[in-house]
Specification:
The protein has 626 residues and is α+β, with helices and mostly antiparallel strands. It is built from 25 helices and seven strands. The strands form two sheets. Strands 2-4-5-7-6 form a five-stranded mixed sheet, covered by helices on one side. Helix 2 packs antiparallel against helix 3, helix 13 runs antiparallel to helix 14 and helix 15 runs antiparallel to helix 16. The N terminus is likely disordered.
Length: 626
């Protein structure tokens, strides 16, 4: 009778029935020995059982056997489900190329069967793999298609998974508002389905976002809720993931001992197949040893993480690995190795989001909106044809009234559709501009770090000063992109905040404390200026303030520096002066790159400048704002 029960389950056309828990693999294999037909169905169920037990190599072996049988009988639905499961198994093993191949094959077979729900589910799985590889635009494209297919079906497990992954992609792009919105959608669906495993996953993801927002109390609240559910489910791999995330938050809270305990517990629970998860935990433990000034131990963990990262091709984990590796080498005084890591980091960041990916993301969003609009237009055309057939049998006044209603409806819908499309495109462009400013800021900061590392190995005073000047100029531009990244629409920068940050940073770099030094006077009116004007002004201030710290302060008994900027009748008046020994202007302009930069930037701003260089250095700059 047991044999009959098993065969009844196995011949289900959709192959969606799961093996009952009271039928072990050994029983299935005995049935295989006594059955002369339908071996491929038994192979499929044995493979599923191995997959549930995380015996992935055995699962692959039996999936391949059942695939051979299905292909021989041209049983496409069986081939579709087998390909989909193979995609999941290969993903668990970190074999991403094989995973992508099988998910794409599954999608093709599902489409042949017009199985819309399964197509959407496989697209969601493929989107998750694309996200792991850092291909965010491609992942979002697959997930948006899946969401469009699943949305008419209401709350389903697949739609929850789709929303969850979309939220994770927005989080990767630091668009935390959208990330939380999509994760909350996923959480709502999963609660309605009472799927505790996935509820725990959504709580965990929301906790990670609050950690990124530096709202650590909220982060711990969500992560502890997730941990409690996962512990009740008694799933070690799920518990390990949340223990790791709690450990990360405790690092941020400087609770190092507790963080280390959580991370070590996480590592002990990690499966050997969870390469990405183990790499993340290794990186976090390395971070702790860096914070404890034990760089050698940190490098041991980083090497372990790196081996797993290279095997699985995990770019996000590689970015963290290189950051922690740079810090470890700096603590050891190995600036050559730290510089090498900095160069590798630039390559990894370019791989995570380059201009081609940005363009593809724009194209993908446009394509998605266009398809939705075309579907709406097609539906309207169908409605118009039906209305026309009825109008032909009605009186004239009904014809006129009907046409008027249709025209108003079409025009209104077109206006509404266009408005929504433009609004979404505008929001996407704003997101991309923020991301570009973020990348420019990061790369400028990385260049500044490279200059700083190189300066530690230079002994020649002239060369050292040249490197430091270059570093200050890069920092002057990096501050602007940092402020632009925090905005959504405006291209303007508050000149008071910007110059205040710049002068403070320069004072620190030359060993002066602006807040405690009465000799530095800063009086800057809070004026919003376009970035095209702010960058030249910032570079001019950078050159003159740097010169004061280099040449006036060291040789003057009571040095004074004044930086004053006021708006006077549509003109910006900038005055910078110190009480140093001054200089001979013509000679200086022949030999000073900095003063030549000032003259060039002044012409770019259509500004007039006036110098006073006898027994002091004073510059007055008048710049028209219109």
């Amino acid at each position: 009778m047991l044999r009959c029960l098993i065969l009844a389950l196995l011949i289900s056309p959709a192959l969606k029935a799961q093996v009952p828990e009271n039928i072990p693999i050994i029983t299935l294999k005995k049935t295989l020995d006594t059955t002369s037909s339908n071996h491929e169905h038994l192979y499929y169920q044995i493979a599923q059982t191995y997959q549930q037990d995380r015996s992935y190599d055995s699962a692959i072996s039996y999936y391949q056997k059942c695939m051979k049988g299905y292909m021989g009988k041209n049983y496409e639905i069986g081939m579709a489900f087998t390909h989909n499961n193979l995609g999941t198994v290969y993903n668990k093993l970190g074999k991403i190329d094989s995973s992508i191949f099988h998910y794409k094959a599954a999608i093709q077979y599902y489409q042949n069967q017009n199985d819309t729900t399964s197509v959407a589910s496989a697209l969601t799985n493929l989107g998750m793999v694309n996200k792991q590889m850092g291909s965010y635009s491609l992942a979002l494209e697959n997930l948006l298609i899946a969401a469009r297919l699943l949305d008419p079906l209401g709350n389903t497990q697949s739609l929850g998974a789709c929303y969850n992954t979309i939220g994770s992609i927005y989080a990767s792009q630091e668009d935390y508002d959208n990330a939380i919105a999509y994760h909350r959608k996923a959480l709502s669906i999963r609660k309605s389905l009472n799927n505790q495993k996935e509820v725990a996953s959504s709580l965990n993801n929301i906790g990670i976002i609050y950690r990124n927002l530096e709202e650590y109390d909220s982060a711990l609240t969500y992560l502890n809720q997730s941990l409690k559910i996962k512990e009740n489910l008694n799933d070690k791999s799920l518990v390990a993931s949340t223990l790791n995330n709690i450990g990360g938050v405790l690092i941020n809270l400087d609770q190092i001992a507790e963080a280390k305990d959580y991370l070590e517990r996480s590592l002990n629970l990690r499966s050997i197949h969870d390469k990405s998860g183990k790499a993340i935990t290794y990186n976090n433990l390395a971070n702790i040893y860096n914070l404890q000034n034990q760089p050698q131990k940190a490098l041991l963990y980083l090497d372990s993480a790196q081996a797993l990262i290279k095997e699985g091709g995990f770019l996000s984990e590689m970015e963290d690995n290189l950051n922690f590796r740079m810090l470890a080498y700096e603590q050891l005084g190995r600036y050559d190795k730290s510089l090498e890591c900095a160069r590798e980091l630039m390559v990894v960041r370019d791989s995570l989001l380059n201009s081609d990916k940005v363009q593809r993301l724009i194209e993908m969003q446009t394509k998605y909106e266009t398809e939705k609009k075309e579907q709406s237009i097609a539906m309207l055309e169908t409605e118009r044809e039906l209305q026309k057939a009825e109008i032909d049998l009605s009186r004239l006044w009904i014809i006129i009234l009907g046409i008027s209603v249709v025209l108003v409806f079409v025009i209104g819908l077109s206006i509404y559709t266009k408005f929504r499309s433009e609004s979404r495109n505008k929001k996407q462009i704003q997101l991309l501009m923020q991301e570009l400013h973020h990348r420019v800021k990061n790369n400028l900061q990385l260049l500044s770090n490279i200059f700083s590392l190189q300066s530690r190995t230079i002994t020649d005073a002239g060369a050292l000063e040249a490197v430091r000047s270059g570093e200050n100029r890069i920092n002057a531009m990096a501050i602007i992109h940092q402020k632009l990244y925090k905005k959504t629409e405006s291209r303007s920068v508050n000149i008071h905040d910007y110059l205040g940050d710049l002068i403070s940073q320069l004072a620190d770099s030359y060993g002066y404390d602006q807040l405690q030094n009465d000799s530095i006077e800063v009086d800057i009116q809070p004026v919003e200026l376009d970035v095209d004007k702010v960058i030249p002004i910032g570079l001019i201030v950078n050159e003159l303030v740097s010169n004061s710290f280099k040449y006036a302060f060291p040789v003057t008994e009571n040095p004074e520096l004044k930086v004053i900027l006021h708006l006077e009748k549509d003109q910006l008046h900038l005055r910078i002066e110190d009480n140093g020994p001054g200089f001979s202007k013509p000679d200086k302009f022949e030999s000073s790159m900095g003063l030549n930069i000032i003259e060039t930037l002044s012409r770019q701003l259509n500004a007039t400048i006036k110098w006073e260089t006898s027994n002091k250095t004073k510059l007055n700059l008048l710049m028209p704002l219109k």
